[in-house]
Write a structure and sequence with these properties.
It is built from eight helices and 13 strands. Helix content is 24%, strand content 24%. It has a six-stranded parallel sheet, with helices on both faces. It has a five-stranded mixed sheet with strand order 3-13-1-2-4. A two-stranded parallel sheet has the order 11-12.
Length: 278
């Protein structure tokens, strides 16, 4: 079977796949029709051209001015997680002030940003993680905390308006039981069954993160206001291409990493340059 056949068609992926999506750097050169950015601007965002490189090509709408309060390493940890959470909570689930939200893997890279975005919106947030991360999740603004290692979360969480799931599997299936009628389950990892959603009287959808300059600019504003931050655990120096991608710790490839409150950044992002096209 070819490598292409292993790619799920639902993901919209096809070979070749260029590694690295989140970038932060300085604009080296721009196209003739670029108006809002100029050479020398410090920017960040998501690109499809591959970010694991010294130079990356970015289209208009993929990058915006980097938050003034962040260095390149910390800025590079923001776009994918924050945009995924934003589009899941606000574009799909239409989360509004006063609504109750359950976030699985609340201490993870996406979940931790989702807490902060939801609180900025005025929602009531229930964060789920292991007990060792309770202080971290509460410090981010969670109103309630559920330790999934000590209790079945679906037995203690009821009648929420929205569930944001980044774990999938059994956690995703059990999350249906926490929603009120008319609620919304949005997942970043699972493919929801419309039939099951109808059975529970809710709506369900999968979020596919897409570059969005307007949303990323709003996220940048929250960052500079001190209302949103990512947590970077390790910065790796990406060696030359002949050396390949650095080897990450084994825990970075485990299921439990979904519940770790860290992001990993390749330091080559620090030296990358963006070439903005028309």
């Amino acid at each position: 079977m070819s490598a292409q056949a292993h790619l799920k068609p639902e993901l919209g992926l096809k070979l070749p796949i260029f590694l690295g999506g989140e970038i932060a750097g300085t604009i080296e050169k721009i196209g003739d029709d670029v108006r809002d950015l100029k050479e020398g601007d410090t920017v960040y965002g998501i690109v499809t051209s591959g970010g694991f490189a010294e130079y990356a090509i970015a289209k208009i709408g993929e990058i915006v001015t980097k938050p003034q309060s962040l260095d390149f390493e910390n800025a590079a940890a923001i776009p994918l997680g924050a945009l995924t959470a934003w589009q899941a909570l606000f574009d799909l689930a239409n989360l509004s002030s006063g609504q109750r939200l359950l976030i699985t893997a609340a201490s993870g890279g996406v979940g931790s940003l989702a807490i902060q975005l939801a609180k900025a919106k005025g929602a009531f947030v229930i964060g789920m993680a292991s007990g060792r991360n309770e202080a971290f999740v509460r410090d981010l603004g969670a109103d309630e905390f559920v330790d999934y290692t000590k209790q079945n979360f679906e037995e203690v969480v009821k009648d929420v308006d929205v569930v944001f799931d980044t774990v999938g599997g059994d956690t995703f299936e059990r999350a249906f039981h926490t929603l009120k009628k008319g609620g919304f389950l949005v997942t970043a990892v699972q493919f929801p069954s419309e039939e099951k959603a109808q059975k529970f009287g809710i709506k369900a959808a999968r979020v596919y993160c897409k570059p969005n300059a307007k949303q990323l600019a709003a996220i940048s504003k929250l960052v500079d206001e001190g209302r949103l931050k990512a947590h970077v655990s390790t910065v790796y120096a990406a060696r030359g291409s002949e050396k390949g991608i650095p080897t990450f710790p084994k825990w970075a490839h485990t299921r439990q990493d979904c519940f770790a409150n860290w992001d990993i950044v390749l330091k080559r992002f620090y030296r990358c340059r963006q070439l903005c096209l028309e």
